[in-house]
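Office hours follow-up: a student asked to see two folded examples consecutively, so here they are.
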Amino acid sequence: MIYLDYQATTALAPEVAAAMVAAMDHYGNPNSAHRLGRIAAADVELARERIMAALGKSGGRLIFTSGATEALNIAITGAAHISSPQRRRVITLASEHHAVLDTVVALRHDGFEPVILPVDRDGLVDLDIAAAAIDERAALLAVMQVNNEIGVVQPIDALIDIARASGVTVVCDAVQGFGKLPTPNGDLVAITAHKMHGPKGVGALWLRDGIDLPQLMHGGGQEQGIRPGTLSPMLCAGFGVAAQLAGDRREMDLAHVEALWARALHLFADWEINGSMQARYHGNLNIRQPGIDAARLISDVRGVAVSLGSACASGSGKPSHVLKAIGLSDSEARSSIQHGVLGVGVQMDERIIAGTHPDSLPSGSDRTRTAGRVNDYASPLASKSRAYCRSAGYSLVTSTHSPVRGWLNPS
């Protein structure tokens, strides 16, 4: 299986798995005062320090959560409710993750005015439009650093400057940028572990000094009362090591991404790229080809893991709201495929860029390591599937167990 869905999730790094296994032996409750509890608490605090270091933050507070969705809900709802009564606007972009969009819209029930700013064909917000909306009537701005579907990097520094000029709190969704790009200078920053080779089920919210959120959940008062509930030292430890690895490997990983990006542009030269080519994280490639049914293509191409967009909304059956926000038609959105191409220490990615273009492959049976015969079925979808996969150097093979076994890349 060739895994190219790194915006959805990542495999555990071996170092992360080792840290989590070690922490499993520290079974005490981190809130307990006895020795076992203090050992578990030490695991949590070491992880907190490592994540803060990876964020580049020496001040403020880091609160552990179950993931970025919870962190964003706490940040957006909490920041809105501590704003002055004169500030009723909550502002975000049309291309945001649903964890942001839905939370902003839900604040309508609490008397706030959701304002959803449009993005252009490149997926970028117009700063003049943003400046007109982000004024003394606004309670907060919630904005994503790197879009999870099209990889576009918003002009976040300029947006933060606009917000600061009007005293507006900024909530940053840094999930896709954490460990790859500099941390935005927002007031609250949401991150998660499983997008950077850490475990699922743990995220964090960083708050600058002076931000005191109201208590939205009730319980034992853990995490300074902001997020009560017993933490998992194992998950926290894994997150901490993943963050440390990301910081240590950042330059190497970015060089890896640039090599993949350059190769992908060559392999998919006849495909349209969704989103800005300039303001973009190159670990994301969202492309489209007229006439392709991307959902059917993904189903047929079983040896390659790519996606239609956000995994969180993949079961809705609707075209991606991000692709619709940048002006694509339903047909264009449904013919789009998302590749996430960064994996720390995962060599499967590298086989995409090194010697896998059809022109560089040996001929005949040496092109694959399977005894199956090449399938030559001739439906229009099959033709599109073959064109897509062969452009990336895969060979379609079959077996007696399935009409289409999958696309395999040579190694």
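And the second, which I mentioned at the end of office hours:
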Amino acid sequence: MQVTSSDSPEAPAISVVMPTYNTPIPYLQEAVESVLNQTFRDFELVVIDDCSTNGSDEYLKKLRDERIKIIWNKENLGVTKSLNIGLKAAKGKYIARMDADDVSAPNRLEKQFAFLEAHPDVVLVGSYYEAFSEHFSKIIVQNIKSQSLYRIKSLFRNPGPAHPTLLIRREAIELHRVIYDESLIYAQDYGLFVEMCKYGDVAVFPEILVKKRVHKRQICVLHRKKQRECDQLVQKKLLEELDLTPDKEALDFHYRFSYESIRKIELYKGFKWILKLNHLNFRLKKYRRLDFLLFSLKVFIGQFLMLFFDDAYKFFYKITHQSKI
């Protein structure tokens, strides 16, 4: 690993950690410039190049800004290990996550810095974001109703906020020795959220501070099956904390029950699964009991309604088309 930096003697307030591997140069350039043009000036940009071969490394070598620190991996290590290298190299009081193909609003760091300064119990804060491509734009709003519900939600799915919107309290990471779980090649943010919410509150700044680019090269598109396996590794760990030892069939069912849709014949199985989880939680008191009951019932009712409306759609489609014959 080689490092290129300005070797500034003073630690900055924020370290922006940005891993990159063969990011299209126009995307990378826009991402870097959106950080360098922040209204908040006391930061360093830590870029971890994971052996890029598309010429983007040459673009990085030409950058001339004392706030930029570039780390050159000697071999391709993947996103998770590159993120941990970035965390180790970061010197700031806070650590901002940034994807190499996204765009930060000019006042992103300013607003999130002020928020964490004013809320010492918060260990990380995200924000709303705009998902965009050449063909569409969509505003994504994520809110956290309570810390109790946030922790419960993490048992069923990635609770968010969006990974590239994060500003993290570095003191909490160092105090509790939190790093990205390197067994999670993907879904590393899911594992991070599960760990960080043990040590403080998680928040979302209620403004759009990041534009998140959507394209075919993203992990969620290229490696969906592997990302699902990593999601299940996190879910398995949380289920084990409820004294469960789920086999592959149980993990697959829990994942589908949480993220996707189950079959009609599995509805009763889903109800029994919810009862089992509530029974274990009632005994272990891992989650607030009433919150857990209501949230798990909400998940079950959501599955029921999906099946109901699917049947209703099929019924009306059938009679509508029969009437035309």
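Two things to take away from it. The chain has two domains: 2-221, 224-324. The mean pLDDT is 92.
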